[in-house]
């Protein structure tokens, strides 16, 4: 009887000891994410004034981030890294879902700038940034992916779409930049007045005619099509 009582007491002592320690670990994880969040916010605030060549607006970037976080996406691909502004919004979201991004850029100068930006924002570990010709690499990518974003040569949007859609799992999302429901494209945040992106009409027709997709459009920034695979 006495040995049983001792065993119970030891078990209770063990639980008391483990409880605060476990709580401390969780607090550390939360603290690390909060520190990263602030680092990313600081980078985005500084970048907004440093450059007028940001490849997505803040509204578009926030939308991409929210799509990933709200749906718990973890396996993402981006075609058209540019200097990494959209990449940072996507990677920031993936830091919260435990995911990773593959992003592709053909221009070495922009690729190197993106790497530096990701390092400054503290997000390098969430990104596999590849210097490559998307025309050659994208057909070779193997999924499954649950999120895709394209912001590259508009006359190749349909081909990127047809290559990637089979690799996106049901419930996943395919987003494209500088498009509108009319198919006329979007001027984008930094475009000269009256300039419209070309080559998106065929892409919009393609996604709207694809029965496995539910598509909506977000026009608060440079124009996003957002298609969910069902």
CATH architecture: 3-Layer(aba) Sandwich
- Low-pLDDT sequence parts: 1-28, 187-196
The coarse overall form would be globular
Overall pLDDT: 85
Number of domains: 1
Distance between the termini: 61 Å
Number of strands: 7
Radius of gyration: 22 Å
Give the strand line-up of the largest sheet.
3-2-1-4-5-7-6
Element order: H for helix, E for strand:
HHEHEHEHEHEHEE
Q: What helical percentage do the residues reach?
A: 40-55%
CATH topology: Rossmann fold
Task: Characterise the protein shown here.
The protein has helices at 2-50, 58-71, 85-97, 108-121, 134-137, 157-164, 201-208; strands at residues 75-79, 100-105, 127-131, 145-150, 168-177, 213-218, 224-229. The chain has 230 residues and is of the alpha/beta class. The protein has one domain (52-229): Rossmann fold (3-Layer(aba) Sandwich), CATH 3.40.50.150. The chain has a 7-stranded mixed beta sheet, with helices on both faces. Helix 1 packs antiparallel against helix 3 and helix 2 (58-71) packs parallel to helix 3.
Care to give the gist of this entry?
This protein is of the alpha/beta class and 230 residues long. It has a single domain, classed as Vaccinia Virus protein VP39 (Rossmann fold). The chain has a seven-stranded mixed sheet with strand order 3-2-1-4-5-7-6, sandwiched between helices.
Main attributes of the structure:
globular, alpha/beta, 230 residues
Q: What's the arrangement of secondary structure elements?
A:
Layout: H1 2-50, H2 58-71, E1 75-79, H3 85-97, E2 100-105, H4 108-121, E3 127-131, H5 134-137, E4 145-150, H6 157-164, E5 168-177, H7 201-208, E6 213-218, E7 224-229
Parallel strand pairs: 1-2, 1-4, 2-3, 4-5
Antiparallel strand pairs: 5-7, 6-7
Helix pairs in contact: 1-3, 2-3
């Amino acid at each position: 009887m006495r040995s049983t009582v001792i065993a119970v007491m030891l078990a209770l002592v063990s639980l008391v000891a483990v409880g605060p320690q476990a709580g401390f670990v969780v607090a550390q994880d939360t603290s690390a994410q909060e520190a990263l969040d602030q680092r990313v916010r600081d980078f985005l605030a500084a970048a907004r004034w440093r450059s007028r060549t940001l490849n997505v607006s803040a509204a578009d970037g926030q939308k991409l981030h929210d799509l990933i976080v709200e749906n718990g996406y973890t396996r993402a691909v981006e075609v058209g890294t540019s200097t990494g502004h959209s990449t940072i919004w996507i990677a920031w979201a993936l830091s919260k879902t435990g995911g990773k991004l593959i992003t592709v850029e053909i221009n070495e100068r922009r690729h190197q700038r993106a790497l530096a930006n990701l390092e400054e924002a503290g997000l390098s570990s969430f990104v596999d940034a590849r210097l490559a010709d998307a025309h050659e690499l994208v057909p070779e990518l193997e999924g499954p992916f649950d999120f895709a974003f394209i912001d590259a040569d508009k006359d190749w949007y349909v081909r990127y779409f047809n290559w990637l859609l089979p690799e996106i799992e049901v419930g996943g999302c395919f987003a494209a930049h500088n498009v509108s429901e009319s198919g006329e494209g979007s001027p984008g945040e930094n475009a000269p007045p009256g300039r419209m992106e070309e080559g998106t009409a065929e892409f919009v027709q393609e996604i709207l005619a694809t029965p496995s997709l539910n598509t909506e459009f977000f026009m608060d920034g440079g124009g996003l099509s957002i298609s969910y695979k069902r």
